[in-house]
Amino acid sequence: MRYTDAICWDPSSADDAMWKDLHAHFTEPELVELGSFVGYIAGGQRWIRTLGIDHGDVLPETTVGLSPDAARHVSARSAAK
């Protein structure tokens, strides 16, 4: 959670220890891509929340991007209708 907090909410929390840990696993270009992706997803989720859209309100029958358990739940819910 510490890393996403730094990317999305509080850049000042990105301390030297965090960067050292991240650089042990990722190259600089990978970190740029990872940070960009996390920011993109976080922004999209905030926009969805702003619109007041809950999970399943739009395209409720789709299971794309869901965990296997969540996909089974959606499929069962759709079949019950």
Report on the architecture of this protein.
With 81 residues, the protein is an all-alpha fold. It has one domain (2-80). The protein has 4 helices and no strands. It has helices spanning 2-8, 16-23, 28-51, 68-80. The longest helix is centred in the middle third of the chain and has 24 residues, at 28-51. The radius of gyration is 17 Å and the shape is elongated. The model has no long low-confidence stretch (mean pLDDT 84).
Please identify the structural class as seen in this structure.
mainly alpha
Which of globular, elongated, flat, extended, rod-shaped describes the shape?
Answer: elongated
> How many strands, which pairing sense, and closed or not: the largest β-sheet?
none
- Treating each run of at least 4 consecutive H or I residues as one helix, how many helices? 4
Helix content: 55-70%
Give Rg in angstroms. Answer: 17 Å
C-alpha end-to-end distance: 38 Å
Number of strands: 0
Q: Into which percentage range does the β-strand content fall?
A: under 5%
Give the helices and strands as they follow along the chain.
Answer: HHHH
Detail the poorly predicted runs.
Answer: none
Number of domains: 1
Task: Please tell me the overall pLDDT.
Answer: 84
